[in-house]
Amino acid sequence: MKIEFAPLSVPLRRRLQTASVVQWVFSFLALAQCCTAAFIALFFTRFWLLCVLYAVWWFKDRDKPSKGGRRIHAVRNSIVWRYMRDYFPITLVKTVELDPRQNYLMGFHPHGVLATGAFLNFCTEASGFSTLFTGQSGGVYRCSVFFPLCPPGLVSSDKESASYVLKKPEGGNALAIIIGGAQEALDARPGSCTLLLKNRRGFVRLAIEHGTPLVPVFSFGENDLFEQVRNPQGSWLRRVQHQLQKIMGISLPLFHARGIFQYSFGLVPYRRPIYTVVGKPIPVQRNYKPSEEEVERVHEKYVKELTKLFEEHKAKYNIPEDRHLEFI
Length: 328
Prior knowledge:
The chain is α/β, with parallel strands linked by helices. It has helices at 12-43, 48-60, 73-76, 79-87, 116-123, 129-132, 159-166, 181-184, 202-210, 236-248, 292-313; strands at 90-94, 104-109, 137-141, 154-155, 173-178, 194-195, 214-220, 227-228, 255-256, 274-278, 326-327.
């Protein structure tokens, strides 16, 4: 294989963009494991007291992920995220105004390999979420096991955590849920429009219970950042990945793209644009105990609006006219 190396004359600005993305990939894939290993290693040294103090703090703070998380504006507004935004680049697109007195539940599609668009648009201010949607504070509803190590904006992926955000009476809160989850990442490859949504109804039930409008969000280009080893449904590789997901709780897509100093192989995403389009809110009537029929009816409306959003905007973002969403 011929290796294409990056030229030495790359501007400093682009090097900083690459560095910001590299730290994000490392944080996503290995930071928790490295911190756990460091914690264990330090415990058997003369610094063991620091480990004990951290463990006590973690125990006392263990409920924080289920109560809105910890928002540190200096971190959300860090220049690191702006460099990361410009690497691809990533753009947040508003189609309608959102009422700042209202809470919203946003369904984000597709997951992609590392959910890059969801993180950057809703967990940071790099794309100007709070400015674009005046009065709204974003947060991505995703699993956060080692919460103290995660950036502000992430909250725990349980119903208690979501309810805490959506029931705030003052409004102005936007909770984004990556509907397809880790399993959908196994179908994330360039050109893919496959969404895991047919049997995902928990978010709809949650919206009905709180009377929170549903907002479909589609991130064009999310699946184009990495190549993935071929793993069609029914293949031995897909079966192994599903089994590992059941055991570990996370999927393990075999993805690859470019490297830090060369463009031929590695785990750094390609420089390909992402356009995250926020659609029109779907009003939901509050019902503390919705029936299956009511959930199904709202789910069908959500799928219809998401499809409409995709079809209306796909031509702007170079999606072929004959390509449509596929729901599984």
